């Protein structure tokens, strides 16, 4: 079948017609507003949501590329970073920037430590970063981008946390950075950051904490009395932290932070070109042009909620998460993996293919991510879910019964994809399969 081609229309399409086209286009999107989607979307409440959209539109056309032209954007970014560093128990000696998301924050953290290591360890020709197997793939992307080798170490088989002894054994003379998660995406556990940072400090290398998910909720979870391991700048040896505002900071999509314990390290994040005919070009992050609306809306999100607002949303989220975890563990043949520290977790079964259970839940209107190694279904709880907990547990229990009564059920599209992936023993071949699959998805249909 020949590939379709979309071209620029000869004449502009009228607004009413365009609006209808866009409304029609989004009819196939998942309905996240009903609280049945367990990933991708984070919203505190309707008033907060409406206000940050307004804040974004107020600064929609402004560009943070030049902070001298738009001092308002400089104010928003610097104050967001200051609030973030304070929340993460840093000091006034720290620094950082806002980015487009957790991936860019991680990219910047790796790039910064690579450039820092070039000065501190000029004898290292092939630098390495050491990370647990549960760490986000963005670190591997960073390794590819910045010519750094990523070395993954299996996590503890019982706790799913980074194995400190195994991590220490994985250190070589080329290691410049150790990574830990707070929390990790698959199981929602906080790695032993104190122990990992102690090793990094003793060896004089960097320690990055990926708190993209947990950075804007774990401090409040801890304040509410939950037993949360230390993970932030209060831990000696932690040199950088990534934390997403667009997750539990409830900011607009495309807002994250990368922060450093000291501005001396932060300096290595910047790119500067002074011999260009277009003038002096300095960029703190991957992007040159940075949308002003995102910075303004992130600032508005933090200030709208304040500490008390975050405490209350966190209370709601944690109570819902604990009820869900307990409820899932009480359903026959289901159990939650590990002991999640916060509101992110996954569950599986030793009785049946958990992906097939996901297919049944899909038909009931729920959207659950599929994980692998081991197979599991994944939930990220936010305030939208607080009124859906009982319904979810009922539907889940009913779905287990339905699956047990229909053991020959065929897999749906997403489960079939993951199932096929599991049958490919060579991971390089599996990677090629996924790349071809995604390439086909992004073609014009």
Keywords:
alpha/beta; Aspartate Aminotransferase, domain 1; 13 strands; 2 domains; 7-stranded mixed sheet; globular; 14 helices; 4-stranded antiparallel sheet; single chain; 445 residues; Aspartate Aminotransferase, domain 2
Description:
By secondary structure, the protein is α/β, with parallel strands linked by helices. It folds into 2 domains: about 250 residues, Type I PLP-dependent aspartate aminotransferase-like (Major domain) (Aspartate Aminotransferase, domain 2, 3-Layer(aba) Sandwich), CATH 3.40.640; about 110 residues, Alpha-Beta Complex (Aspartate Aminotransferase, domain 1), CATH 3.90.1150.10. The chain is about 40% helix and about 15% strand. It is built from 14 helices and 13 strands. The strands form 3 sheets. It has a 7-stranded mixed β-sheet, with helices on both faces. The chain has a 4-stranded antiparallel β-sheet with strand order 10-11-13-12. β12 and β13 form a beta hairpin. It is globular and about 70 Å long.
Please give the number of β-strands.
Answer: 13
The CATH class of the largest domain, by name, is Alpha Beta
Strand order of the largest sheet: 1-7-6-5-4-2-3
Q: Report the sheet with the most strands, covering strand number, pairing sense and barrel closure.
A: 7 strands, mixed
Nearest-integer average pLDDT: 92
End-to-end separation in angstroms reads: 11 Å
Strand content: 5-15%
CATH names the topology of the largest domain as: Aspartate Aminotransferase, domain 2
Structural class: alpha/beta
Assembly type: single chain
**Molecular shape:** globular
Number of distinct helices: 14
The structural domain count equals 2
Helix content: 40-55%
How large is the radius of gyration?
23 Å
| CATH architecture descriptor of the largest domain | 3-Layer(aba) Sandwich
Element order, helices and strands? Answer: HHHEHEHEHEHEHEEHEEHEEHEEHHH
CATH superfamily of the largest domain: Type I PLP-dependent aspartate aminotransferase-like (Major domain)
Poorly predicted regions are none
């Amino acid at each position: 079948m020949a590939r379709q081609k979309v071209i620029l229309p000869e004449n502009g399409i009228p607004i009413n017609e365009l609006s209808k086209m866009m409304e029609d286009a989004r009819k196939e999107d998942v309905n996240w507003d009903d609280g049945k989607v367990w990933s991708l979307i984070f919203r505190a409440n309707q008033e907060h949501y409406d206000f940050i959209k307004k804040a974004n539109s107020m600064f929609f056309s402004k560009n943070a590329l030049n902070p001298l032209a738009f001092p308002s954007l400089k104010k928003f970014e610097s104050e967001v970073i200051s609030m973030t560093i304070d929340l993460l128990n840093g000091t006034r000696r720290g620094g950082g920037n806002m980015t487009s998301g957790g991936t860019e924050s991680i990219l910047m953290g790796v790039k910064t430590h690579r450039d820092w290591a070039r000065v501190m360890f000029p004898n290292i020709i092939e630098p390495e970063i050491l990370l647990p197997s549960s760490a986000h793939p963005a670190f591997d992307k960073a390794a590819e981008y910045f010519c750094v080798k990523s070395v993954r170490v299996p996590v503890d088989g019982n706790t799913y946390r980074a194995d400190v002894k195994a991590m220490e054994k994985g250190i070589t003379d080329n290691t410049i950075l150790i990574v830990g998660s707070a929390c990790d995406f698959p199981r929602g556990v906080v790695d032993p950051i104190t122990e990992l940072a102690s090793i990094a400090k003793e060896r004089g290398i960097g320690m990055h904490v990926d708190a993209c998910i947990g950075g804007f909720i774990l401090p409040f979870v801890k304040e509410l009395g939950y037993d949360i391991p230390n993970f932030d700048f209060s831990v000696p040896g932690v040199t950088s932290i990534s934390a997403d505002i667009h997750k539990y900071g409830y900011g607009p999509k495309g807002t994250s932070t990368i922060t450093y314990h000291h501005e001396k390290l932060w300096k290595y994040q910047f790119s500067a070109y002074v011999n260009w005919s277009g003038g002096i070009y300095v960029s703190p992050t991957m992007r040159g042009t940075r949308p002003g609306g995102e910075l303004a809306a992130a600032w508005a999100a933090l200030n709208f909620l304040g500490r008390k607002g975050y405490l209350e949303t966190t209370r709601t989220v944690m109570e819902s998460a604990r009820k869900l975890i307990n409820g899932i563990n009480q359903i026959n043949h289901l159990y939650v993996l590990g002991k999640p520290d916060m509101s992110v977790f996954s569950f599986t079964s030793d009785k049946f293919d958990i992906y097939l259970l996901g297919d049944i839940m899909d038909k009931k209107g729920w959207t659950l991510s599929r994980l692998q190694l081991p197979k599991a279904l994944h939930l990220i709880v936010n305030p939208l879910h607080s009124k859906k907990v009982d319904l979810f547990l009922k539907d889940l229990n009913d779905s287990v019964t339905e699956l047990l009564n229909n053991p020959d059920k065929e897999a749906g599209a997403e489960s079939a994809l993951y199932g096929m992936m599991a049958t490919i023993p060579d991971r390089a071949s599996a990677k090629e399969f996924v790349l071809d699959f995604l390439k086909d998805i992004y073609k014009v249909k």
